Amino acid sequence: MKASILQLLQSENTVVSGEALSEKLGVSRVSIWKHIQKLRENGYGIESTAKGYRFVSRPESVFPWDFPGREHLVRHYPDTVSTMDIAREMARNGCPDSTVVVADRQAKGRGRLNREWHSSDGGLYFTMVLRPELPPVFSFRINFAASHVLATTLRQMFAVNARVKWPNDILVDGRKLSGMLSEMEAEGERVSFINIGIGLNVNNDPAVEGSLAVSLQELLGRKTSRREILTRFLDAFDERRKKPLDSIIDEWKQDTITLGQRVKIVTVRHEFEGRAVDVDSTGALVLQLDDGSMESVIYGDCFHTAPQTDQQESKSIWNSRTNST
Ligand code: BTN
Prior knowledge:
By secondary structure, this protein is α+β, with helices and mostly antiparallel strands. It has helices at 2-12, 18-25, 29-41, 83-92, 140-158, 216-220, 226-242, 248-253, 311-324, and strands spanning 45-49, 52-57, 74-80, 99-106, 124-130, 162-165, 169-172, 175-187, 190-200, 262-266, 271-279, 285-289, 294-297, 301-304.
C-alpha cells in the first residue's frame, strides 16, 4: 500500500486528495492517512495542504515500499547481525524465490573464508534467497550470473570500471568495491535454496578494510542512492535469470580482470601461484603453475600478485588463447 501511495503521489507530481487516493487504491481515507503518517515517521516529506497530499522528498532508504512490484519480497532491517542468518532461516521456512533481506547495518557481517564484513551506515548489505531450477552441481552458475550482472549494472549506472576478480569480487582499479558470499542447501538432486549475500560500499567508509577497499562515494565524489542501485541490480538479475545460464561463464569472462594475470590462490589447505589461464565450465580457476603443470581450483582467495598495467593486454592474451583452441 505504501509503495502504491508513493507511486501515485510521485506520478501525479502535484497535490492528490485523500479521496482520490482512497478511491484509486480501494481503501478508506483513514487508512491512507495512517500510511502517510507511517511514511513521514520513516523520513518521507509529504505535505498536507487544503487540497490533499503533496510529495516533497524521500529519505535515502531501502524500505520494502521503495521497491514497487516487489515490496512483498523485500524485508528491511535497520540493524541486524547478518542478513545471511535471517535469509537462511526464511529460506528454510519456505519463503518465495527472490526474497531479499536488506539491512542498513550489520553487527557481524560475514565475509568469505570466515572473515568479517564491516557493515557501517551507508553501505548496501543484502541477501537474496534464490530457488533456481538447477541441479546442485550447477549451482555455482547463479553466483557468476550475480557478479556479472552487478559489475555490468555498476558500469552502466556510474561509468566506473567495475570488473570481476575470480570468483565474485567487484574491483575498480584494483580496489574492492563489493564482495559476495553464497550458501546453498540441497535435497538430493534438487537445490532447495541458494542464498547470495552482497556487500557493496556505497556511501560508507570502507577504510577499515584497508586502502584496498573503495566506495562509490569516494570514486564519484558524491553520495548515491542504495535504493536505485538495488532496484537496477534486481531488475537486471531477474531478466538474466529468465534466460538459460549455460553461457554465463563466457559472459562473466568478458568482465573479469583475473584471466591472463599472475595470481596467488589461498585455499584452506594449499597455496598455488601461477598464471590464471581459464575458468572452466565448473567455475574453477585454471592455473598454469611455474613448472608448467595445470591446476584447477574450485574455491579460495585470489590475489593478483603482479599489478595489472594494461587490462586490454590480459584480455587479448585470454582471447588469443581461446581462439587458438
Ligand atoms: C567477501 O568478499 O568476503 C564477501 C562479503 C559478503 C558480505 C555480504 S553483506 C550482506 C551479506 N550478509 C553478510 O553477513 N555477508 C553478506
